[in-house]
Amino acid sequence: MAFKRPDGRSFDQTRKIEAKVGIIKKADGSALFSFGDSKAIAAVYGPRQLYPQHLQNPEKCLLRCHYDLASFSVTERKRPGPTRRSSEISYVMTKALEPVLHLQNFPNSVVDVYIIITQADASTRCAAINAASMALANAGLLMKELVSSVSIGKVADAIVVDLTKEEEDYTITKEGKEEKATTDIPLAFLSRSEKLSLLQLDGKIKLQELKQAIAAGKKACVKITEIQKQTLKKIKEK
Fold first, then answer.
1. Is 0.90 surpassed by the pTM of this model?
2. pLDDT tens for residues 59-76?
3. Beta strands across the sheet bearing 147-155
4. 72 exposed, middle or buried (CB, 10 Å; 0-12, 13-18, 19+)?
5. 133: part of which helix (H) or strand (E)?
6. Domain residue limits, the chain
7. 85: which residues sit within 8 A by CB, 6+ positions away?
8. Which of 70, 107, 136, 181 is spaced 20 to 30 Å from 6 by Cα?
């Protein structure tokens, strides 16, 4: 039986997107980005002097991302504070965002980006990257381009855009056993150069299917970039 999305979306359709900037007044820059019930809030502080001094780099600024899930964002109980997973996502977020920033302009400094997931229904790292990219722009940092991110999934034999938790957990019965049938592929693209700044893969996929997934992600990110730009433009016009 062919796979059909539980929420009725077409394979190339994201969930409803919400984007806002300037939502945290005391931050240097801030933004909210959501895919359906996956909501991320990002706040930027800096550039500011980096302490302790031995961490300073006289050639460039340090970018630090701090990703975490709010304890109330998931149905399973979660202890407050960072986990191994959140530390891993913080690292890949930093690497995804670094290429667009002129970090050499602020030696011996740090830019901290704090991201909290207030609701989680899969694709949270992608929502977080989109929020962080907008928050950095809102902070007035000189950026070469924006970063846009989306999750692509291979669910059974279908390539779909913007996975939900239900789709992440999709299983099929094989030889009388339940077997996970989803491969999750978070992607991030630079808006102008269209280069990949994030590609992760959890599961199995054939090379041709991966190429199809990347093409679908690139197409979706063009739309996400336009939403980011329009949201940033609106606050500039106020």
1. yes
2. 999 999 999 998 777 656
3. 158-161, 147-155, 182-190, 196-199
4. exposed
5. helix 124-138
6. 17-237
7. none
8. 70
**Encoded tokens for 95:** 């690497």
> What pLDDT score does 196 carry?
97
Q: Which CATH number applies to 17-237?
A: 3.30.230.70
Contact 96, 200 (CB under 8 A): no
- Three-state secondary structure call for residue 208: helix
What is the rounded distance in angstroms from the CA atom of residue 153 to the CA atom of residue 49? 41
pLDDT in tens, 50-63: 998 888 999 999 99
Backbone angles phi, psi at 56, to 5 degrees: -70, 145
Task: Please name the amino acid found at residue 17.
Answer: I
Whole-angstrom distance, CA of residue 142 vs CA of residue 36: 30
Residue with tokens 């907008």: 134
